[in-house]
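B., you asked whether I could sanity-check this one before it goes into the benchmark set. Here's the sequence:
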Amino acid sequence: MAKYILKRLAVSIVTLFVLITVVFVLVRVMPGDPFTGEKITPEIKANLEAYYGFDKPLPVQYFTYVGNLLKGEFGYSMKFMNRSVGDIIALSFPYSFDLGMRALTLSISLGLIFGILAARNRGKKLDLFCVVVAILGTSIPDFIMGALLQYVFGIEWGLLPVAQYLGFQYTILPSIALGFYTLAMVSRMMRASMLEVISQDYIKTAKSDGISNLRIVWRHQIRNAIMPVVTMLGPVVAATLTGTFVIESIFAIPGMGKYYVESVQNLDYSLVLGMTVFFGSVMIFANFLVDVLYGIIDPRIRLGGK
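And here's what the prediction gave me:
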């Protein structure tokens, strides 16, 4: 198992290195520069480029940036004066992380429950309800869902606030809007996986041996059916966390989405790179944890990482 974990860790490190390289190059080849449109003289612009190292060859800039990253330095924003990228991330990420984790907790738990109930009640009204929820979740974009929730629960019924992030009640609508798609995906996959497991011969054998129904469901059906869901958790976590950009804009949440969008619009190289690398690191780490979890759940995975 240790060899398997080390192998996955090595793959994650290589992936992160590739991400840093690709994003660095793409940002540098974008039309314009951070100082385009600024009312400054050519001399001041030249001084700014020298200050940020833009006057040096691209390979030198790249290795300098990677060296600073290894020391935990993301540099300073070129538009938010006197603010480091690290400070901006430290200020805004807790909001994005909190929203993402609330949405993931809600969507994964309810998705698993809906999928299990739908499979156990195949063809019944409960199954139909879960299928309809799954279809709606995969069909309606999160920004449309967010607007609908704001209109119904905030404007029409006045039950919940429609914007800001000042307390628990403010987190309910954005968490549902962000996690609804994930809930639908998990529900659909868990239902399909459960139906496949239920029809297996070993389930019939367990029933004929007199094993209790609860034990069969928990130890044999759910345990085996959940493995495909665990496999997809990495991409699901990535999609949910990155999806906060749109939801944060709709619900006026002061998370990383606001700064990320502005950094792209303003060609703020340091902030674009810093936030992309940071989010990429979070996604890669999430996929690494999923790989390790899958290795723990599945006893067939051995040291070789098969």
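One thing to flag: DSSP finds 13 helices and no strands in the chain. Otherwise nothing jumped out at me.
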